[in-house]
Every structure is written in C-alpha cells, then in structure tokens.
Amino acid sequence: MIRIKDISTLEGMLKHPTHPILIDLLKWAVVRYSDTVFTCGWEQRKTPSVHSMIPLRGMDIRSRIYDDPQPVVDDINAHWEYDHDRPEMKCAIYHDTGRGPHLHLQVSDNSRYRRDFKA
Predict the structure, then answer these.
(1) Could you tell me the residue ranges of all domains in the chain?
(2) pLDDT, mean over the chain
C-alpha cells in the first residue's frame, strides 16, 4: 500500500517535475517494499537540498513502518548507485535531520540501477 503523510506532502510531490531517475527508484522501492508512506517531497528550503531542486531529486519515506529500517536502506544501496564518481554518496540514507528518523532517497544525474547486481 502506498500512502502519503498529508496534503502538503502530496502537493509538494505534484507541484514540480520529478527527476526521471527518482521516479524509477521510487517505483522500484514501492514494488519491493509494498508498504510505503511518503513523508516529504519538494519543499522550499533556505539551503540547497535535493528536496528543493527542480526537478525534484529527493523523497522521504516513513521509517517506523519497518521493523528495522537499516536493511531496507542497505538493500536499496546494493541495487542503486548514486554516482560512480562519488562512491561515498548513497541513494538511500536512514537519518534524523531534526524532524524524526526517516528514510531519505535521493538521486543525481549519474544515479543508476545496478543491473549487474548479484545477491
């Protein structure tokens, strides 16, 4: 089931174009993890962020719906590469930026699905 936290989150998701790679990552994630709650899409921010870029490059997902969110993050990062030139960057992060712990998904122009992934 895909859910959206509130009307402002939905508005933020629909108000601006979304990066096509983020769309692919989100589709992959909701198929793989069918219970998904989107909590933040596009937002006006004082400092630059993937949440304030156009097209939108970041989306947050509620973490408390998972027994342990870290394996979800690890699985996403095992299948998705953020940028081959910046291997320290990840497509999925589990963190708390002051508004509660959540999964943060992000992409760059160089993000890609690892088709050669072997479990």
Answers:
(1) 2-71
(2) 87
